[in-house]
Amino acid sequence: MTDRDQTYDKVVQLIAPFNKKGVALTEATTFAGDLEWDSLVVMDFVANVEDEFDILITMNMQAEIETVGQLVDAIETLRADA
Predict the structure, then answer these.
(1) pLDDT per position in the chain (82 positions), as tens?
(2) Residue 76 backbone dihedrals phi, psi, to 5 degrees
(3) Are 45 and 18 in contact (CB under 8 A)?
(4) Are 11 and 75 in contact (CB under 8 A)?
(5) From 2.20.25.10, 1.10.1200.10, 3.30.70.790, 2.40.50.140, which CATH number describes the 3-81 domain?
(6) Structure confidence at residue 81 (pLDDT)
(7) Which residue, of 1, 16, 50, 58, is most buried by count of CB atoms within 10 Å of its CB?
């Protein structure tokens, strides 16, 4: 299992408490469209991700991240740069 696979698995675990509709998650799952998250849910979720991976996701980055796969890629990039 690659580091990216492990990151993906952890992100899926972090999404679970917020996945009220039981949406099946894939790399292409969108936070706004598929999961129907509002800004408050996104803020709570991002805080959990930042704590779990010890990273900081800027507001500009958040605006560009629309899918689970994009989030995993962003986490991997931030961890590599740390």
Answers:
(1) 889 999 999 999 999 999 999 999 999 999 999 999 999 999 999 999 999 999 999 999 999 999 999 999 999 999 998 7
(2) -60, -40
(3) yes
(4) yes
(5) 1.10.1200.10
(6) 86
(7) 50
Chain position carrying tokens 């560009």: 64
In angstroms, the CA 22 to CA 70 distance is 20
Q: Give CA–CA dist 8/41, Å, rounded.
A: 19
The one-character DSSP state at 35 is: S
Alpha-carbon distance 82 to 78, whole Å?
6
What's the helix, strand, coil split of the chain in %, to 5? 60, 0, 35
State both tokens at 35.
């999961």
Q: What is the DSSP letter of 30?
A: B
Map out the domains of the chain as residue ranges: 3-81
